[in-house]
Amino acid sequence: MMFQKAFPSTLVFLFFCVAVFSTPPEDPIKCSSGNTTCTITNSYGMFPDRSICHASKVLYPTTEQELVSMVASAARSKSKMKVATRFSHSIPKLVCPEGQNGVLISTKYLNKIVKVDVEARTMTVESGVTMKDLISEAAKAGLALPYAPYWWGLTIGGLMGSGAHGSTLWGKGSSVHDYVVNLRIVRPASPQEGYAKVESLNEQHEDLNAAKVSLGVLGVISQITLKLEGSFKRSITYVAKNDSDLGEEVGDFGYEHEFGDITWYPSQQRAVYRVDDRVPINASGNGLYDFIPFRPTSSLALALLRTTEDIQESAGDADGKCINAKTTTNTLITSAYGLTNNGIIFTGYPVIGFQNRLQASGTCLDSLKDGKITACAWDSRVKGEFFHQTTFSIGLSVVKDFIEDVQKLVRLEPKGLCGIELYNGILMRYVKASKAYLGKQEDALDIDITYYRSKDPMTPRLYEDILEEIEQLGIFKYGGIPHWGKNRNLAFEGAIKKYKNAEKFLKVKEKYDSEGLFSSTWTDQILGLKDGLIIVKDGCALEGLCICSQDSHCNPSKGYYCRPGKVYKEARVCTHLRSK
């Protein structure tokens, strides 16, 4: 979710194949008979373990009253339930009900703006409203959501379920859920209460801290009220620098610039700083941010790009990847990543514009059907991007050490991280400690890495061991907290122990859904209630499904292997060793 999208090789060609129109993503829910006998996936067409999730039926409430009735009916029959959204951008299996007899409740039609209070600067929306619609409607009323994810295809309920965020250390931080002042959630109830009830939680209600980031296990959020601000303008300038002092600068940069972030290209020893701050409302400029990787793209171009990367992977062509990575980066920097000064062309920095025109984008969603001539780059219906995404937050107190560790790996294998630079490098966003029980635990830097995934689960990636080592350094050596809406299985191993209020969350979960109707094996596993998160099988390490502490735990002949880290004894990497 939430959300750094990939932008792979031969970008110059891709840049000129961006289209005006696009085929919108298909519904992630497919049913063979009306709204029954259904499957659900994510927007990428594949979960980390490549499983298919089933449901007996899908329900589409249009009002809170209908939602209460649907939850009550399912609770009466003790049916498992899961909430689904219009686009389903979470990578892990948060939307999967248990077995094949569960019920999906889609918020696709719970998509109305309920109330805008200009004087109080609040907006109440149904949970299926997208970021795009919220931002747009707020702007019409002279209001603005201060911080948000960069991708506007998320629903408000969905981003709260996974804790999605933007980038800031200012105010209450960059997580949207920390600006929620009221929330209504429909949960199972006793027979005496009609099997379902609505809980209305305001800022004084302690349960709000559980519902703000709920993983969907408390019930179905029906309405959310957000605290907004008056409309304002921002000024953005991208500054590219050598990364030699990145570790020293990263801590202060987030406090110096309200909306700052950093995109790091380690193999190129280059970092791009986003200098992004508020300016007076009368500052001249009507800038627009239409982020290039989120634009509709020619399906033919996408197929060519994927074929090129497949060939480079199979041939071990690291040089080719490094050349393409530099081309990609240079083109993005030259094109200001999609910024324009007036909505048409980029004439130079700074780009100044209103918050609603700069904070998020996703034009590949806003289009007419064109027979898949164009699509979002990751649309599984075309041959396009297919990737893993590893995302974790590291405390600001230790992030310098993490960056320096990665730089040591680059010195050992200078070409080892060219692959991630085809997907726009490492996005680093600032996050602030949250009161939400499953929110961020401290002021931190969110590390977001996107990288190639093979269609064949038994095929290792080029320089896979380097990426595996970075993943384990971040999550285990430095105690990184995984993003709930991204990541492979191993990132969640023991994660719940990193949350000081985990027990409080579990108590609210027991109170709201004592029979676990909104829970599944997957959510029980990531919450530490069941074992089985780590799956040891042929090829498990290639997909991030297993981890080991001793060499004897893995067998290289079966596609997984455990070796001591090249630099750090603390990092033991379970991976298929690439041939030298």
Automatic annotation (TrEMBL):
One of its GO terms (molecular function) is FAD binding. GO terms for biological process: L-ascorbic acid biosynthetic process. Its cofactor is FAD. Gene3D superfamilies: 3.30.465.10, 3.30.70.2520. Its EC number is 1.1.3.8. Residues 51-231 form the FAD-binding PCMH-type domain. Pathway: Cofactor biosynthesis; L-ascorbate biosynthesis. GO terms for cellular component: membrane. The keyword Acetylation does not apply. It is an enzyme of class 1 (oxidoreductase). Keywords: Ascorbate biosynthesis, FAD, Flavoprotein, Oxidoreductase, Signal. InterPro entries: ALO_C, FAD-bd_PCMH, FAD-bd_PCMH-like_sf, FAD-bd_PCMH_sub2, FAD-linked_Oxidoreductases_BP, GULLO2-like_C, GULO_Plant, Oxid_FAD_bind_N. It catalyses: L-gulono-1,4-lactone + O2 = L-ascorbate + H2O2 + H(+). Residues 1-22 form the signal peptide. Belongs to the oxygen-dependent FAD-linked oxidoreductase family. This is L-gulonolactone oxidase. It comes from Phaseolus vulgaris (Kidney bean).
